[in-house]
Amino acid sequence: MEDGFDGLANATVVATSLQDSTATAGTSTNRSGFFDLEVEWKGPTLVRISHIGFRAFADTVAARSRVDFGVVTLYPDVLDLEGIEVQARRERMTIDGD
């Protein structure tokens, strides 16, 4: 891992066929941020790595071979929201004795 960075656990890794946009394989990263994904080759494939709170990484695999992406860095995806108000409603409960 790069200095000051830890592996990102539970990131989603999905391989998608570029021919018809169908997902062909998927997995998630382990506690250390590593993953191994086996894809049945059907032509050029898009591999996308994503996690809530981070911008996704995507790369195209155009050859039938083992690919090592090395260290993939997912950058924080900060979204500033204006204040929101959360409201809840519940019905009043009454308990009648026997």
Helices and strands, with pairings:
Blueprint lengths: L11 E6 L5 E6 L16 E6 L6 E5 L37
Antiparallel strand pairs: 1-2, 1-3, 3-4
Task: Give a written overview of the molecule.
By secondary structure, this protein is an all-beta fold. It has no helices and four strands. It has strands spanning 12-17, 23-28, 45-50, 57-61.
Keywords for this entry:
single chain; 98 residues; mainly beta; four-stranded antiparallel beta sheet; 4 strands; elongated
> Which parts are unreliable, with pLDDT below 50 for 5 consecutive residues or more?
none
Helix content: under 10%
Provide the succession of SSEs. EEEE
Mean pLDDT equals: 88
Q: In a nutshell, what does this entry contain?
A:
This protein has 98 residues and is mainly beta. The protein has strands at 12-17, 23-28, 45-50, 57-61.
